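Late entry, evening session. Most of the bench is empty. Finally got around to the prediction I had been postponing all week. Sequence below, unchanged from the version circulated by S.P.
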Amino acid sequence: MKKFALICAALMLPVSAIAQTTVVLPGEVRTYVMEQKTPSVTFEGEIVVGQPLPETVEIHTIPEQPDFAYAIVNEKRVIINPKTRAVVEVVQ
């Protein structure tokens, strides 16, 4: 029985490791980011949701939306959590 419990626990591990928190963006955040004329910066690396951008990438605040910021990186508009610098969404 103990062996069965260990196997079940091992099978559940990947499921919990993959789980992510979903962030609901207010529509005005996406609209604001799409309207900005900020120049794009080059970043040698992959932009991954959930991963922070390095300090070398300048992020810009969004008026009246303190929980969100943005950057334009490698010609892609990226919404960021300004506290953690983590990528929330890549806007297409």
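Two things to note before I forget:
The CA atoms of residues 25 and 58 lie 21 Å apart.
The chain has two helices and four strands.
Will write this up properly tomorrow.
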